[in-house]
Amino acid sequence: MAFLEVKDVSREIFNNNGKYLKIIDDINFSVADGEFLSLIGPSGCGKTTLLRVISGLDNPEKGEVTLAGEKIVKPSVSRGYVFQHGSLYPWETIRQNIGSGLQAVQGKKFDQKLVDHFIEIMGLKGFEDAYPNQVSGGMAQRAALARSLVLNPQLLLLDEPMGALDAFTRVDVQNIVYKIWQEKKTTMILVTHDIDEAIYLSQRILVMTPHPGRVKEIVRNDLPFPRKRDSSEFLETRKRLQQILNFK
Ligand SMILES: Nc1ncnc2c1ncn2[C@@H]1O[C@H](COP(=O)(O)OP(=O)(O)OP(=O)(O)O)[C@@H](O)[C@H]1O
């Protein structure tokens, strides 16, 4: 049995105009424990919809998702979710944000040492008492990652967390994600528009096509870690993905 199994999943809705819409159709794939998988595809192909179903935020009209054999029917602290924007509470400091989920689970005497540990490894020391609008975009996203990771999730869902960052900061946060994945072996699923980001981080890349969203191909990415963005193998993999995505 695979760790995460997405079986025959379709998401169908009636939009605000009463029109029937099939957003994703008959999605099937599995993810091994500790694996890093990326989802890529054109805008609107249903990547976020699929991630929301895996998180339990939405339920599919057809099919099911199981994690370690348990059917996912609602969100759980065991499945972290980091958004492109707005994963942090603006009214809480960085420290309070990172600790808030832990406090909800462990109560008032929650493990402050663990929060300190994540402040340290995310390079947020000196900024723990700042509010999200007082730190850089990269720091805010590192804090958002810490906020999920501090709960030691079985599965971390990353919905373009680097998407709104400038190129330098994006690489910096990619390196943090890579380091955390190497150290903690947390199973991760990343939605991204950035082919290089998918190649840099993931062991398999699931390519989707739109209207409705379907799986076009799942590409194995066996380049040795840490990956070199300018190696000929990296560029070959990029070319292959561009072909699958029909880039001219
Ligand atoms: N609740 C909803 N009501 C109406 N339409 C929806 C709803 N949820 C998703 N959609 C539509 O379904 C399609 C897929 O949306 P989704 O956000 O999952 O795609 P995506 O691949 O993540 O897009 P992007 O790459 O632009 O973030 C889009 O056309 C979107 O407008």
CATH topology of the largest domain: Rossmann fold
Level of helix content? Answer: 25-40%
Compute the separation of the termini in Å.
39 Å
Overall mean pLDDT stands at 94
The CATH H-level homologous superfamily of the largest domain: P-loop containing nucleotide triphosphate hydrolases
Order of helices and strands: EEEHEEEHHHEHEHEEH
Give the names of the bound compounds: adenosine-5'-triphosphate
Uncertain runs are: none
Got a strand count?
A: 10
Question: How many H/I helical runs?
Answer: 7
Arrangement of strands in the largest sheet: 6-7-8-3-9-10
Characteristic terms for this protein:
single chain, 248 residues, alpha/beta, Rossmann fold, six-stranded mixed β-sheet, four-stranded antiparallel β-sheet, 33% helix, globular, binds adenosine-5'-triphosphate, transport, ATP hydrolysis activity, ATP-binding, ATP binding, Aliphatic sulfonates import ATP-binding protein ssuB
